Amino acid sequence: MRLPRSSSRATTTQALPSIQTLFRSSPTLNGSPCTGTPVSPPKVSDKEVEDGIELVPIERLKREDTSKICTPSSDEKEFVSRSQLDLEFGSKPLPRVPKKWIRLSIKWRIVAIICLQLLFLLTIVLSLMATKKESTDKTEQESATVQSASPVQPSPTPRYLPIQRGTFALKLGSPQQAMSGCLSQSNESAAWQCATHPSLQVTLLPPPVDQNNLAILSLGSDSDVKPSEYGIQDLKIEPLELKPTTDEERKDNGLAYYFNTTYTRIVLLKESQIVAQGQPPTPLDTSMSKIEIDERPWMCVFEDTLLEGYIYVTQPSALNNSGVEFAAANGSGAVMISSLPYVTKIIEQKMLTDTIPYCKQMKMESNGTLAPYGDKKMLTLSDTSLMPAKFGEELRVAMTEQRRQQMSSPNACRCQWVIG
């Protein structure tokens, strides 16, 4: 059965809706800024509107064509086209490789890179060596100038002087100089004495493996002997580095090794040697007699006592063939130690710091130990001007200057020995 045919002209065609896209060149409508408030578009005739949407690439837009689009659903949106300058930068080629480099073979290119790396490494090594040399020169200059507590500054000398190593004895004997002027009270002057100093045990230690020219000295023995005799007690000084120098007071003795340090000086006195003001003390006993059980000696303590010495390595001692007995380290018996083979000068002096010397009464117990028995008695100093608190190198330099000033002052506590 054939269907009826109808004419195409008789069919009604529904018109498609027109879509209008407006780009306004002005950022305002009716003189007011774009907002989210709906704005009625201006009337446009049907002849000026064509069906469809035209899509235009952004690159074809010119700067002056750029405008804001205001829609009811958004506050403000802005489309900005890429500038011509950005396009030019993006199209620039990379730098060209030099023609000389291209002409080189791969082998010579590798050699050139290796040489450049070696040159860079050599520059780093030379810079480090120059820095190390500058630091070493500064250290040598500081070590050459020795800060001395003597009245005259020691002179710089060679870095190393030959010296015999080992353990030796140094018998001080009678002092060349003895002063107790730092104590103002006559009944307390016995607290600082020089005549009862025991012999010193001096050990010249071997140098470290990598520092053969270094000379190190320690004072005191390893034995732990309890105080049992009156007089100045044994001292123990940690290892010190010896500095080559020349003693300006004794230039005829030639080159010497110099050392200085501070320690706590302890003196044990008989009960009758520290008495009340106005009472005469008993004469000083220099025999260093033994402390008996139940005796009540005075223990006088002088902190910040300066100890310094010169070992004249070019002057042999006349006591080289003699020896001194010391208690054995294990406490059993005594050992004979030969004397130091060089002429030596030892100086002790109480420095005026914020530490005040004092004496405290003790009692010898039946087990041979000293126990506290009475209160501490602070000693009266002649010079009450105290040195401010200092540490390390600053303290040592300050003590050196102070000792120079006290050399000509009667208000000093000082002992000096020349042995050999």
Automatic annotation (TrEMBL):
Start and end residues of each DUF7820 domain: 149-322
Entry-linked InterPro entries: DUF7820 (IPR056722)
Pfam families, A to Z: DUF7820
Record region (Disordered): 1-46, 136-159
Feature: compositional bias, Polar residues: 1-38, 142-152
Keyword Transmembrane helix: yes
Swiss-Prot/TrEMBL keywords: Membrane, Transmembrane, Transmembrane helix
Transmembrane feature ranges: 108-130
PANTHER family registered for this protein in UniProt: GLUCAN 1, 4-ALPHA-GLUCOSIDASE
The name this protein goes by in its record: DUF7820 domain-containing protein
Species per Swiss-Prot/TrEMBL record: Pleomassaria siparia CBS 279.74
